[in-house]
């Protein structure tokens, strides 16, 4: 007997209800975790899907939360010189106006730095360009 779409939808509903109960139970024990059930694929033999659990307020009280982008930029600041504050805005010269560094991707060989203009547009720039901006940039 093959699974029908209505059976899979019913199973998803039951799984989501069970996950809410697990989440409430964990919250009562001091672990505030949310679960989400991704797409469910099924065939005649069974079903499969993706379950994701994320912590709410994973940072200890009194400690500032560090975004992944901020952590990456902190690690990347050594490339641009000691004590470089990448959270400040810089005046660019390539027609993008004022911008600030918002990301760094270590795996990206050509364009590892990500900058964002005051209007929210993001650009990828090379390490050489980032060094030039920091060396010649006017901090706004």
- Overall 3D shape: elongated
Helix-strand topology string: HEEHEEEEH
**Arithmetic mean pLDDT:** 77
* Computed structural class: alpha+beta
Please compute the radius of gyration using only Cα atoms.
Answer: 23 Å
* Uncertain stretches: none
Bin the helical content. Answer: 25-40%
Key descriptive features of the protein:
4-stranded antiparallel beta sheet, two-stranded antiparallel ribbon, 34% helix, elongated
Describe what this molecule looks like in 3D:
The protein has helices at 5-28, 68-80, 127-136; strands at residues 33-42, 47-55, 89-91, 98-104, 113-117, 122-125. The protein is of the alpha+beta class and 140 residues long. It has 2 domains: 5-55, no CATH class; 68-136. It has a 4-stranded antiparallel β-sheet with strand order 3-4-5-6. The model has no long low-confidence stretch (mean pLDDT 77).
Per-chain topology:
Elements: H1 5-28, E1 33-42, E2 47-55, H2 68-80, E3 89-91, E4 98-104, E5 113-117, E6 122-125, H3 127-136
Antiparallel strand pairs: 1-2, 3-4, 4-5, 5-6
Concise overview:
The chain has 140 residues and is an alpha+beta fold. It has helices at residues 5-28, 68-80, 127-136; strands spanning 33-42, 47-55, 89-91, 98-104, 113-117, 122-125.
């Amino acid at each position: 007997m093959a699974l029908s779409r209505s059976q899979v939808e019913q199973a998803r509903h039951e799984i989501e209800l069970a996950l809410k109960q697990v989440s409430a139970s964990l919250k009562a024990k001091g672990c505030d975790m949310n679960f989400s059930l991704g797409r469910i694929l099924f065939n005649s033999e069974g079903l499969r899907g993706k379950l994701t659990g994320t912590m709410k307020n994973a940072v200890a009280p009194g400690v500032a939360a560090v975004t992944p982008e901020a952590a990456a930029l902190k690690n990347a600041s050594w490339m641009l010189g000691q004590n470089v504050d990448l959270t400040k805005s810089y005046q660019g010269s390539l027609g993008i106006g004022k911008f600030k560094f918002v990301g760094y991707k270590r795996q990206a060989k050509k364009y590892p730095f990500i900058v964002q203009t005051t209007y929210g547009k993001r650009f990828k720039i090379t390490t050489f360009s980032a060094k030039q901006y920091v060396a010649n940039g006017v901090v706004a």
